[in-house]
Amino acid sequence: MTVIYPSPIFGPVHSRRLGVSLGINLLPADGKVCTFDCIYCECGFNADHRPKQPLPTREEVRSALEARLRDMQQNGPTPDVLTFAGNGEPTAHPCFPEIIEDTLALRDKYFPNAKVSVLSNSTFIHRPAVFEALNKIDNNILKLDTVDEEYVRVLDRPAGHYSIRKIIEGMKAFKGNCIIQTMFLKGSYKGQDMNNTSDKFVLPWLEAVKEIAPRQVMIYTIDRDTPDHDLQKATHEELDRIAERIRETGIPVSVSY
Asked: Which residues form the Radical SAM core domain (predicted)?
């Protein structure tokens, strides 16, 4: 079963990559809003979860976050990270930059050692206000699943015009203040082989990663149910091989199996 997250606050959950993570969902609680429609998304396909509720307001997010942080300060647990994730692309919210400012202030007040992370598909990093907001947080985690234009349209299914070259240029503008996150998987989708663990996909992607020069790369594979059931996890050995290629470039890498 895929999952739709509560809004605007959910968890905390234990993240494979980030630790004890309090989730911040800037999308409606009854559906999914995303500029991608990934075939591996744990929230399911966009068409299956059209929301009827509005986006949470800036004030609703701030109030709910402060209430939850106050409760955690009194009763635990201590969060390692406050993570913008949930039912779609968080940077799509019209008040995303202002909400980041509120979140940083609340983090400093209640849990100054916690990190603020954003999981983004990178489609709005060309917007100056979004770019500036992402530059202020601790973990600016940007998706780059592939540099193959044909493959990305089957795997991530971006809405409207999408240029991998422009995304890479946008990532480079962070001058290293970003983390690249990439999904590796196998299996098939509508009869098409989706294995992106081979050198055909890994080597061009690795060249783009070197060009972007992020401070870290996160590689992972399927962990939860996916809307398409013919997909398979990449093996430990496959992920380890890719990770070693990254380490050879001098860029730190984390692997989530």
From this structure: 16-252
